[in-house]
User: Fold this.
Amino acid sequence: MKILILKPSSLGDVIQALPVLRLLKQRHPLAQIYWWIDSALAPLLQNDPDLAGVVPFERKRWAKPRHWPEMFRSIRWLREQHFDLVIDLQCLARSGAFAWLANGEALIGLDEVREGARGFYDRAAPRSRPMMVKKASEDYAAWWKKEKANWRGPGNAGEIWRELESPYVPALQVLKQADMDPDDPSWRRDLELGNPNIRSLNIVFVVDATASMSAPIARMRVDLRRLMIALSMVCKEPRVGVTFYRD
Assistant:
């Protein structure tokens, strides 16, 4: 069985989609699974033991007509794989079109109204709303219904934040538009995270173990188990360290 997953970006969305890969591999251990991903994020999934291969999507490069032959060769390669199942997790017009062009036996995507991507799918899976999100929305709606009449809107706060001392608010550096250059490598180095190593993810917790913290520690024991289960769905070799201290 051959499966193609389409989730080209962004970094956080790709990581959140990894449980789909893990569950598919658990259900179909002999399946050959490929992942269609933005070339800038491809190193994130390279050498993942659950993947048979990574298919790079050259988003910026293929936007130029002179590079379209490369795009057509990539599509032709996808079609030659004869995928049994194609899964579009991006649910946008671009990913839906590429998923359809892959010409798999079955194409599945989420029932997402944006950009009409579901028109490409053989089956659109309904997107479920987490109960906690629904509850938060209901609580906010109830609060707004009660307080709407008293709402006066924001006043002119001016620049009060400038009077706050640095222990409370980090010093803000006001930059001029001319100083902003997102293409400068230093911006990427200082402001963006690199690709994490999802094969062996290391997390360390530092826990206050004084007697007054007994209730939070009891909750942590339960949450830690849940965390390990969640991490195992993202990376293959998660490691968690816990350090206790008393003040």
The radius of gyration is 24 Å. The chain has a mean pLDDT of 79.
